[in-house]
Specification:
The complex is a heterodimer of chains A (about 130) and B (about 90). With about 130 residues, chain A is an all-alpha fold. Chain A is about 45% helix and about 0% strand. Chain B has about 90 residues and is α+β, with helices and mostly antiparallel strands. A 3-stranded mixed β-sheet of chain B has the order 1-2-3, covered by helices on one side. The chains are: A mainly alpha (about 130), B alpha+beta (about 90).
Chain lengths: ~130, ~90
């Protein structure tokens, strides 16, 4: 299991696929990196020579691709900014509701999580007729 | 769809005029506005806006981070009250 950029340990899949195990590298980035380094994407990750591994690492770092911790931090700070300025998108993030104007009457389960029944919260004064 | 870059950001002309005037004279007064569609420009930083949300004017203090957003984003138009708690405040 070759190590790439610290903690990444792709298995014995094709490198094109195993590169995508890095957070921040998807199918298209993996393809582009391999194209630019002239490495056959069908090679298995374990068959890579140390030189080829170095080339891949260099390609990713020199292109300033945000990866792993850095990328995660970037995303987090973006969210934090939205929440700090109290804008609509920030509020939606805070409440865990969809941010881009989707309906919430039904669906939106990805954001809202598993269904939870919300009961009526009775107003104490309602019965007494004070309202 | 986003706005064409060619046109530049949209800010209501009368709002821009008001801010310009205040920046030149150095006084800072809250600006009452209905123009939720206006983009926050760097000139706006440090000013307070009273942005209409359909009912009241929400006060919005503009900081540097808000540049590039629209004024309306900071003045929510909907209030979520808890389910079922029908107090006098809600039903009004």
């Amino acid at each position: 299991m070759p190590r790439l950029l610290g903690v990444e340990i792709p298995a014995d899949k094709r490198i094109e696929a195993s590169l995508t195990y890095i957070y921040g590298v998807g199918p298209s980035t993996a393809k582009r990196v391999l194209e630019q380094t002239n490495i056959d994407p069908n090679l298995r990750a374990k068959d890579l020579t140390p030189q080829q591994i170095n080339e891949i690492i260099q390609m990713i770092t020199s292109n300033k691709l945000p990866i792993e911790g850095d990328l995660r931090r970037e995303v987090q700070s973006n969210l934090k900014r939205l929440q700090a300025i109290n804008c609509y998108r920030g509020i939606r993030h805070r409440r865990g509701l969809p941010v881009r104007g989707q309906r919430t009457s039904t669906n939106a389960r990805t954001r809202k999580g598993p269904r939870k029944t919300v009961g009526v919260i009775r107003n104490k004064d309602a019965k007494a007729g004070k309202v | 769809m986003g706005r064409s870059l060619k046109k530049g950001p949209f800010v209501e002309p009368h709002l821009l005029e008001k801010i310009d005037k205040m920046n030149n004279s150095g006084v800072k007064k809250p600006v009452k506005t209905w123009s939720r569609r206006s983009m926050v420009t760097p000139d706006f930083v440090g000013h307070t806006f009273l942005v209409h949300n359909g009912k009241i004017f929400q006060s919005v203090f503009v900081t540097e981070n808000m540049v590039g957003h629209k004024l309306g984003e900071f003045s929510p138009t909907r209030i979520f009250k808890k389910h079922g708690s029908h107090t006098a405040k809600v039903t009004k």
